[in-house]
Structures are given as C-alpha cells and as structure tokens.
Design goal:
The complex is a heterodimer of chains A (174) and B (317).
Chain A (H helix, E strand, L loop, with lengths): L4 H11 L1 H8 L2 H20 L1 E2 L2 E2 L11 E9 L4 E2 L4 E7 L21 H13 L10 E11 L8 E14 L7
Helix pairs in contact in A: 1-2
Chain B lengths: L11 H26 L10 H5 L4 H19 L4 H23 L4 H24 L9 H31 L6 H11 L6 H12 L1 H16 L8 H22 L4 H11 L2 H4 L20 H16 L8
Helix pairs in contact in B: 1-3, 1-4, 1-5, 1-11, 3-4, 4-5, 5-6, 5-11, 6-9, 7-9, 8-9, 9-10, 10-11
The chains are: A alpha+beta (174), B mainly alpha (317).
C-alpha cells in the first residue's frame, strides 16, 4: 500500500523545515511570522514595557459585583458625574476613592482611574457657594450584581456625598 | 501564503503613515505627561523616574521633540533604521514616565510603538540581505516590503497576545455572560444618547447576548493571526477587529484609535483605491540569499531574551 501524496509532502516538510520555508514561503511571510513570534515571546516575558505588551487589560474574570460612581438626581434618575457642574457638597470636597462607608469586596469597587477622572471633574467644578439654579443630587456608588439571569442586573446604592449641582443641559433661571 | 495590496507600488505612503500615527499618538502622550506632572495632587510621582523629573512638565515636550526627530528620519527614509531606533528609545522613556504618573501604561501608545518596532526589524532584515546593495535607491523597495511584513507581524502579535492573556488568566470562563456586562458597568453604565443607552441595556439585560459578545471578542482577537496571510484574509481580519473596536467604543467609551488607524493603513487596498502608479522596482529586487541571516536571527533572539531578562521591570496589573 503506497502512502498518499499529502503524507509524503508533510513528511518532507517536517524533515526539511528550513528548505520548505524557503521553497514555499515568500520572504515577506517568513519575516512576518518570525517577527510575530519574537514580539509574542518577548512580550510574554516582560508583560508591559514599551513597545512590548501582552495587552492584558481586563484579562481577569469579572467579580460577581461591580461598582460605579454615578449621580442620582431627585427623580432617582442615574447620570454620569461629568454631566454635572457647580457642585456644592457635604463634605466640602468629597474624596471619591474613599469608599469606606460602602461595604463590599474591594474587587467590586469602581476602577481606580475612572474614579480619578471623576475626581478631576468634581474638583474642577466645585462651587464655594450654592448655585441658585442647582438641584439636590447624591454621588453614589452603584453596585451591580451580575448573576446569570435575564433582565437588568440588580443594584444597590451607597451614598458617597450629598450635593447640589447643575446639569449641563439645565438653563439658568432669569 | 503572503500578499499585500502594496505589492507593485511604492510603500512610501505606508512608511509616512506609520510614522505619522506614532507622531500624533506621542503628541498626546507628551501632553498627558506634561499635564500630569503639572498636577501632582492628582498624579503623584510613584517611581524613580517620575520622582527625578518632578516639576519639569516641559521636559515631556523636549523628549517629544527627540521622538519627532527620529520619526521624521523614518518618514523621509533618511537613515530610517537609526531614526526609528532613536525614536523608540525616547518613546520608551516617555512611556515609562507616563506609567509611573498614571499608575498603568497607555496601551494606546504601544500599538504605534509595536508597528515602528516591526517596521524597523523588517528593515534590518532586508539590509542584512542586501549587503552592498543596501544604499542604492532601488533597494528601498524590498526593504519596505519586509518592513511592512514586520509591522504586520507585531500588530498581529498584539491581538493574539491580548486573547492569550485572557485565556491564561481566566480560562474559557472569560467568555461567560459576566465579562462584557461588567466592562459596560465599570466604564459607562449610563449614556446621554437614547439609542446608545438602548444598545448598552440590551447587552446588560440579556446575558446570552453578552456571552456572544465575549466569545466574539476572543475569536476576533485570535483572528489577528489572519493578518499574517494574504491580502484578502488580512482585510477580512482587519474589518473584524475594527468592528470589535467600534463596539468597545460604543459599549465602554474606550477609544483605541491608534490600532484602528494602523489597521486601516496596513490592510485596506489604498494603492487600488487611489489608482496609484505601479513601481516597477518593487518586483525587481527579491533577494536570493539565505532568508534568515545569522545577524538577524541573533538580533531577534536577543530581543526575545531581553523580554524575559527585563521581566522585573515590566508593568504587571
């Protein structure tokens, strides 16, 4: 019984890899694959050192509960903190990363740089006196529970600061 | 096994494009570093580099000028290998400074860096093959063909590396119903535009859709391997990856514009779209000497080894 032609070709490729590569592969393909393997191997060692990276953002499995700081207005509507300005708060300058009052697993806290961006916005838009056009709001950590069931994730709110503020789309009273 | 829409055409637009994307991204990086140095209350120095450069926000722009000089040499093809290596060294310094101030590296800037690195490695490879011919103007054609292949190799490795990181860290359970919903909730649970809010809510309220999105994420990232095949598969893979990035922007407000620009540049048939004039030199100088010169093999082995030797200095989240 003779071996099929494909088996013979495969056997030759495996026994003469360099000759096969030169014969079958254009040089550009050899360059692309070799550089691919070099970058991939080097990056797996150092993880993240410019320009090598394993691009490992959000690689870990999500916790069961995830948190996010949001603003809840007097109508119980949620919105992004960056949509608000003229904050007049108690305490005067809320420290958003200080979430000791809110229970829960540290892994379930909001992402650090997201909180910092929100703090930057808050600090830049704090008001020394209450704005007459502002409305009462709370800055809250909303904790969403990601159980695998249909429908919106259940959530609980933990108030971080109580303020008055103006929404970017609100018009000043005349 | 390999083809490019640029075969038979001058790759000067590709070279200028890679350099320009890196130049623009590092302008953003320099601006970010200068802003953070000027605001130590929110961005305290956390490492020796950022401590040593405290109070020097304008130095970020000085480093950027050095990066720009190297990228200009690359873009104009005057000493492109030396210019790109020079630029990469100063980019590394700026990237390390940014990492110590921000607390994590800007992966946005790593994509143009990877493309410049790959372009440089491909150029070095070609120069090693061309020997005394290397300085002739006609040698540029084969050099840039291999440079393009090197850049594509690095971008492909970036996406496959991302999928591998997820699989090594969380296994296949990364692709369950929680992951994409957690990302949306962490980043942007509320939206101002009604249609965008509806889109996010659809994923949040339907775990099945969220799981499909997670499986698609892993599949598309692994499809980064297809960038290394023919031009049509590369285009298909690039469109899939671009659609992934568009969805990441819509769902999580995380714009990765740099890899999107690089994919558009490297995968779309630009010479055919703009009816570019054929470059007869592009097919005339295919080298016949050994495909992998020892010097290049040594350089690539050194780079791979350095990745492991420098492991203690790499950022780990």
């Amino acid at each position: 019984m003779t071996r099929p032609r494909s088996a013979l070709i495969l056997s030759w490729m495996l026994s003469h890899p360099a000759a096969w590569a030169k014969r079958r592969l254009p040089l550009a393909a050899i360059v692309a694959w070799t550089v691919f393997l070099t970058y991939f191997t080097a990056a797996r060692g150092v993880q993240n050192l410019f320009p090598l990276s394993v691009f490992d953002m959000y690689r870990a499995h999500a916790p069961e509960v995830v948190g996010r700081l949001i603003v809840v207005d007097r109508g119980d509507r949620p919105s992004e903190l960056v949509e608000w300005h003229s904050f007049y708060c108690a305490p005067d300058r809320p420290v958003l990363r200080d979430l000791k009052a809110c229970s829960g697993d540290p892994e379930s806290r909001p992402i650090g740089y997201v909180i910092r961006d929100q703090q930057l916005h808050l600090d830049a838009h704090l008001s020394a006196e209450p704005d007459e056009d502002a409305e009462p709001i709370t800055i809250s950590m909303r904790s969403y529970r990601l159980v695998d069931r249909p429908g919106a994730p259940a959530f609980t709110d933990c108030v971080v600061a109580t303020c008055t503020a103006r929404h970017e789309r609100s018009r000043p009273r005349r | 096994m390999w083809s490019s829409y640029w075969d038979g055409y001058s790759r000067a637009p590709l070279r200028i494009g890679v350099a320009t994307i890196a130049l623009l991204e590092f302008a953003v990086e320099a601006w970010a570093v200068a802003s953070m140095v000027a605001d130590p209350a929110h961005f305290p120095a956390t490492g020796p580099l950022s401590l040593g450069l405290q109070g020097l926000p304008y130095l970020a722009w000085g480093i950027y000028a050095l990066v720009a000089a190297g990228l200009l040499a690359l873009a104009t093809d005057r000493r492109p290998i030396a210019g790109a290596t020079w630029a990469l060294a100063w980019m590394l310094l700026l990237s390390q400074w940014q990492t110590q101030l921000f607390g994590s590296p800007s992966r946005n800037s790593f994509f143009p860096g990877a493309a410049v690195l790959g372009w440089t490695l491909g150029s070095v490879w070609a120069r090693a093959l061309q020997g005394s011919l290397a300085d002739s103007s006609a040698a540029r054609s084969i050099r840039e063909r291999l440079a393009e292949a090197g850049a594509i190799g690095c971008i492909g490795a970036a996406y496959v590396g991302s999928a591998t990181s997820k699989l090594l860290s969380a296994g296949v359970t990364w692709a369950d119903a929680s992951q994409v919903r957690a990302l949306v909730l962490w980043q942007s649970p509320v939206a101002t535009w009604g249609w965008l809010l509806d889109y996010r809510q659809t994923l949040l309220m339907n775990p099945g859709y969220a799981q499909i999105a997670a499986v698609a994420t892993l599949t598309i990232e692994l499809a980064g391997l297809l960038l290394l095949f023919g031009k049509r598969l590369r285009l298909l893979a690039a469109i899939a990856i671009l659609s992934l990035h568009v969805n990441i922007i819509l769902l999580c407000t995380m714009p990765y514009l740099e890899p999107m620009a690089l994919l558009l540049l490297l995968a779309l048939p630009w010479p055919q779209i703009f009816r570019a004039v054929h470059d007869p030199k592009d097919r005339s100088l295919v080298p016949t000497r050994a495909a992998l010169p020892r010097r290049v093999l040594a350089l690539l082995t050194l780079l791979a080894a350095l990745g492991w030797i420098l492991a203690p200095f790499g950022w780990r989240g």
